[in-house]
Amino acid sequence: MEWTRKQRYRKYKDWDAQTLLNLQAQAATSPYQMHYHIHPLSGLINDPNGFSYYNGEYHLFCQSYPFGPVHGVKSWIHYASPDLVHWHYLGSAIDPDSDLDNAGAYSGSAMEHNGKLLLMYTGNHRDEDWTRIPYQVIAEMDENNHITKPDKAAILPPNHVSEHFRDPQLFKHDGKYYVLLGAQDAKTKSGHIDIYESDDLKTWHENGYLDLGKDEMGYMIECPNLVFINNYPVLIFCPQGLDKTVADYKNIYPNMYWIGKDINLSEAKFTPLQAHPANLDDGFDVYATQAFNAPDGNAYAISWVGLPDCTYPTDKENWANCYSQVKRLEIKDGALYQHPVDAIKNLRHNEKQLNNEKIISQAAGKQYELKLHLLAGQSGKLHLASNEDLSSSLVLDFNTDQNAKLTIDRASSGPAVNPDYGATRTIDLKDDQDLDLDLDIFIDGSLCEIFINNGRHVATLRFFAPTPNQKIAFDKDTKYTGRLWSMNSIL
Question: What is the dihedral sign for C-alpha 411, 413, 419, 425?
């Protein structure tokens, strides 16, 4: 199919049911599909939206285009979970069926208020000349998951921003309501976080661009999130076009975090603890991370595993992308740590104890967790999803001496994935407190998540190994202990 603009923006009601069923069957039977992570039932998912806790469950909405592996007219679909691991699908949530969102329901957030869950999103409106007007819309969801849209937008785009004005984060802080919005300045074409404030969720006042210091943040900031972790304000955001002298990154667009000493939302002032923002994930494919402060006192985050303006091998199968597992965030020693939530352990079965084996498994399958503790003073390679002679695999090249580092190499793991941005990522571990190396590796179909040194670093990536490639082995004798589990499916 040629994905013209007309085809991408075809109304949902004009698609026939059999086409959708065929797409769902194709995605479900893919050898690359995930089974304990959220993935598209058909077509494409991208940004996680509305991550929240309401009515006794965690809720998550996904920006979705169900008719192909492309960015067409977007809707929201809905999942809920009791434990942040076992997600059940609740169907369509926000369809692009009103004048406010006639060209798509773009990204946004959620907040409980007076017994309802408020869903704030960007309505992508296009007029007859295809000029975009981004409306910031607040819908309401009741305890029966019924969603009501308003007739009018809550926030209209101010004159000083371009058409790129989106991804609202709605939250309450110090008795007032705030919205953070990704924005591009109309005059300078530079990226900003715009702040709005309200006493009643009805009348909104623009406080202006958040002062992030002297460095430009590229030409557009997407998906701004503010969470409070161990009393520190932490910004999570995606600055497109960020100069690499400000922060180094290898992906087409970075997903960054910035720990602050303080934030004054009314005065639009952020006081950083770090000199510069840092990469939230050291892998290849994380973007549009959404985080929120939950009632249990923790901050949780989930990411789109996919990147804008990039393609993946499953595009040929008419589906694209997935989500990371949910991660609990923590600040230790001035750095951000990310941890798997405890409930992920409930998926484990068939435990195998490991102790210095060169060959960990000949046939590990495509759903497992591998937890390793490698002693200091070694170097070597761990091959995941490998063929028999280790010539085709996902390679973790480690060094645990004074120049400690970990290099992830997906060049020989299967079909090339966005090779213009390189096939390796190297993580410097010299500043970590212990030269022993801890790895907690999750494999699920074509998704790999690696938690390094108890979450001090995380690396997330897609790889597309041939189905027979299921061997796990070191290239040489290595001193380590560990455990291997198979993982149950959730969907």
Answer: negative
Maximum Cα–Cα distance for the chain, whole Å? Answer: 67
Q: How confident is the model at residue 402 (pLDDT cuts 50, 70, 90)?
A: confident
CB contact at 8 A, 403 and 71: no
pTM of this structure: 0.97
pLDDT of residue 119: 98
Q: Tokens 């999103």 — which residue?
A: 121
Terminal-to-terminal C-alpha distance of the chain: 29
CB 192 within 8 A of CB 221: yes
Kind of pairing between the strands at 278-279 and 176-185:
unpaired
CA distance 294 to 256: 21
Task: Name the active-site residue from 14, 47, 83, 142.
Answer: 47
Taking the mean position of all CA atoms in its chain, how far away is CA 314?
A: 18
**Is 397 among the residues known to form the active site?**
no
SS3 of 23, please?
Answer: helix
Paired with 278 in beta bridges are 257
- Using CA of residue 413, residue 417, residue 423, residue 427, what is the dihedral sign? negative
Question: What tens digit of pLDDT does each residue of 360-395 get?
Answer: 999 999 999 999 999 999 999 999 999 999 999 999
Q: Three-class SS of residue 346?
A: helix
Q: Which amino acid is at 370?
A: L
3-class secondary structure, 95:
coil
Cβ-contact 310, 252 below 8 angstroms: yes
Residues in the chain: 491
Cβ–Cβ under 8 Å, residues 42 and 330: no
Using CB atoms within 10 Å of the CB of residue 94, give its burial: 0 to 12 exposed, 13 to 18 middle, 19+ buried. Answer: buried
Task: Give the pairing type, strands 319-320 and 286-293.
Answer: unpaired
